[in-house]
Write a structure and sequence with these properties.
single chain, alpha+beta, Double-stranded beta-helix, three-stranded antiparallel sheet, 6 helices, metal ion binding
Length: 289
């Protein structure tokens, strides 16, 4: 690809007309930061119309994460709503709710027997069709700490030079199931996903990477080359200007798009227990266009 064409591609991707929170007609939306995160108020997810659900998906896909406060959801409410976004999926190897098998109970405290996944990551990238959306509904929150931080992968891609954008075109990264709680349920083979994926709703490009233990090889590169490129990109994706940090409140309902974001918990809540109900949607196989 010639340099002029790479520049043109990068400019087109960054300057295309985007769906703004101000374009929302059926939802009351406000920004949480300049480009990452929206807050949706004045509506119960259990009573959303089809138009509102469609608009919500577009807002999440543009701004990476949506916060909907004052949503006291029972497990069946969360499952019913999430199924309207995309088909529900479940991460292999995670702990299922005894009554609701497609709901994952995420419980963390000082007595946890397994360490949490630390560092920014995208959910379940080690399957051929990773989740599109992840949702969390808090059941027990700490009085301090325990935030969740999100980073915008569109911004990470658009901040790269045209030369680097061009170099990433066509590259694939190997994703694996390291640190999974029940490895016997993990896929037997790692999967390869594009380094840059195109979002099916927004048309924008985002770097698709996850924590180093689960993304450790670049197709066609020598080990040292892979290591240096992946370390550079992973650090590059964590610029503070692209972050939104969520402080949990009772009855918050948070939805994020794994195709254009990474996230991490901040495990600074000491001895206090933190319990979340997680439900995810199955997405498409990542692609670049």
């Amino acid at each position: 690809m010639g340099l002029s064409l790479m520049r043109k591609s990068g400019i087109d991707n960054a300057d295309r007309k985007r769906f703004s929170y101000k374009d929302a007609r059926s939802l009351n939306a406000e920004l949480l930061t300049g480009q990452t995160g929206v807050r949706i108020t004045g509506v119960s997810v259990s009573e959303m119309s089809d138009q509102q659900v469609t608009e919500l998906k577009t807002l999440i896909s543009e701004y990476c994460v949506a916060v909907l406060p004052s949503q006291p959801l029972l497990p069946e409410d969360q499952l019913s709503f999430v199924g309207r976004l995309d088909p529900i999926t479940f991460t292999p190897g995670e702990q299922r709710h005894p009554q609701w098998p497609n709901l994952n109970v995420v419980s963390l405290s000082s007595t946890s027997t397994l360490p949490p996944i630390n560092g920014f990551h995208t959910d379940t990238s080690f399957v051929r069709q990773p989740p599109s959306y992840t949702t969390l509904s808090p059941k027990k929150i700490s009085s301090h700490g325990g935030d969740t931080v999100f980073v915008n992968q569109y911004m990470a891609y658009e901040a790269l030079s045209p030369v680097m954008q061009g170099m990433l075109t066509g590259l694939r990264f190997r994703h694996n199931a390291a640190q999974l709680k029940h490895l016997d349920e993990a896929p037997s083979e790692p999967v390869w996903h594009p380094a840059v994926r195109t979002h099916p709703i927004t048309g924008r490009k985002a770097i698709y990477i996850t924590q180093p233990k689960r993304c450790s090889e670049v197709e066609g590169m020598k080990p040292k080359e892979s290591k240096h490129l992946l370390e550079f990109l992973y650090a590059h994706c964590q610029h503070i200007y692209s972050m939104y940090r969520h402080r949990w409140k009772p009855d918050d309902f948070v939805i994020w798009d794994n195709r254009c974001s990474m996230h991490t918990g901040v495990f600074d809540h000491g001895d206090e227990e933190r319990v979340m109900h997680r439900v995810m949607c199955q997405g498409e196989a990542p692609y670049e266009s």
